[in-house]
UniProtKB/TrEMBL annotation:
An annotated GO cellular component: plasma membrane
HAMAP family: ATP_synth_a_bact
Source organism (scientific name): Agromyces mediolanus (Corynebacterium mediolanum)
Function recorded in the entry: Key component of the proton channel; it plays a direct role in the translocation of protons across the membrane.
Signal peptide: none
Membrane topology: Multi-pass membrane protein
Name of this chain's protein: ATP synthase subunit a
Amino acid sequence: MFVVARAPLHAPKQENALLAHAVNLLVPMSTDDGEFHGPSIGEFFPGPLLFEDTPFEINRIMLVRFVAVAALLLLFWLGTRRMRVVPGRFQSVVEMGLDVVRVNIAEDLLGKKDGKRFLPILTTMFFMVLFMNITGIIPFLNIAGTSVIGVPLVLAIVSYITFIYAGVRKSPKNFFKNALFPAGVPWPVYIIVTPIEFISTFIIRPVTLTLRLMMNLIVGHLLLVLFFSATQFFFFTAPGLFKLLGVGSLAFGLAFTLFEILVAVLQAYVFALLTAVYIQLAVAEEH
């Protein structure tokens, strides 16, 4: 939705600069023309790494997603393979993470019965988004798996289907009627209200879920690339006293790295929370 032309089949210079920073910022990198190049949207369209020109083509972002999912599965396997009544440290950390979703999202919004029912999907969404987001600040990965529309869109569709399923399961005959024709509204006003309700409930929700998650990670990645590539430029390419500007860009880069960690956690929480809110609205008594 952002780029019409096909992206070049080589990793952009800014990605190389960011990867070099992850290893050691003080190792100079060569530049072609001695000029600073800011980040571009091409960051999110890297060239293929494996299976080029096949339906199974894998680029750097797909590889990052595989790593995030593998790390998530490994974490929960290690944390739950030997469950004890008195948990050890690692089991306690895993259980604390699960309780964040169970207590603060599922049961708080849906109650114990419906909370337990929808807990697996809410937990999956929270941790999948979290692990996909956090790859944006991990050395050698340096890009979020949710910064390209595929994963956010799939998760938004799953959220949307879960919302529809919950409403239809709760009230098969009245769910769509109550959603599109709110009670207490004069019949002539439905000419205006019903299209608005349809758009806001069944179209805007999945779109906003997708864009909110994706755009936050796009902006965060571009800012980090900007600051760290600027740091490399000032330290190793800029002449004279301009090198001192690298200290400032480095400080901003480190500050935004911490901010990106907060954004990664917050976006995962918000995505799961909004999904729970939509489910709660679907199973409300009036439906």
